[in-house]
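Translate structure to sequence.
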């Protein structure tokens, strides 16, 4: 199958990325429900993540993509990403784009923002795990500079499946994380 890249597609939905706030909770949960491949975080985990409390360890961050060129104008939510950082190590914990907004470069932008934030916190590397069958996410992560480091056998449930462990060297990935909002 031939697939256009995001930049070749006629992207008619303008969108932008901003830090998530507590007011985004319901919309994030609704996108998470659409995306069984994403980690199934409870509303209490999200509430803590979105509270803006930066005293915890590790530090956590969450970004959202919203419809419209002005991120703070209250357009509907198109996707989210979350990550955490503890010293030199960081993790891209979750990313999801609403089914109706896929293939527009939003997932790439959301991952890039988390990686950029991790770099700003002083991380030298970002790690993640992904279902072995999730070819779309694997392609996205590889294109952002993530390299496979190993496999965790039967790590996921419902259905049981291996996790592929990946990591990106933050000193090498600055170019890959550049993106343009549409
Ligand atoms: C993975 C996911 C976030 C990608 O979001 P998206 O907004 O569609 O991604 P983008 O448009 O930014 O595309 C980024 C890259 O993903 C890959 N990709 C996207 N759609 C694809 C498709 N249909 N087939 C193959 N690869 C695809 C490509 O590498 C693409 O780069 P390219 O367009 O330059 O070729 C989205 O498919 C999703 O939400 N999936 C469910 C949740 C999930 O799997 N999360 C990851 C595990 S935590």
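Result:
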């Amino acid at each position: 199958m031939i697939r256009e890249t995001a930049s070749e597609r006629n992207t008619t939905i303008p969108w932008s990325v901003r830090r998530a706030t507590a007011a985004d909770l319901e919309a994030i949960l609704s996108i998470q429900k659409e995306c069984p491949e994403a980690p199934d975080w409870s509303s209490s985990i999200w509430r803590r993540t979105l509270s803006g409390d930066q005293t915890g360890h590790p530090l956590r961050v969450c970004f959202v993509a919203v419809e419209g060129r002005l991120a703070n104008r209250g357009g509907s939510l198109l996707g989210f990403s979350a990550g955490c950082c503890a010293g030199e190590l960081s993790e891209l914990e979750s990313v999801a784009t609403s089914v109706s907004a896929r293939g527009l470069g939003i997932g790439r932008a959301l991952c890039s923002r988390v990686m950029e934030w991790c770099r700003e916190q002083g991380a030298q590397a970002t790690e993640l795990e992904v279902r072995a069958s999730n070819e779309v996410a694997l392609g996205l992560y590889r294109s952002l500079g993530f390299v496979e480091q190993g496999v965790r056998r039967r790590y996921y449930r419902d259905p049981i499946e291996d996790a592929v462990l990946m990591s990106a060297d933050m000193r090498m990935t600055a170019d890959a994380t550049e993106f343009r909002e549409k």
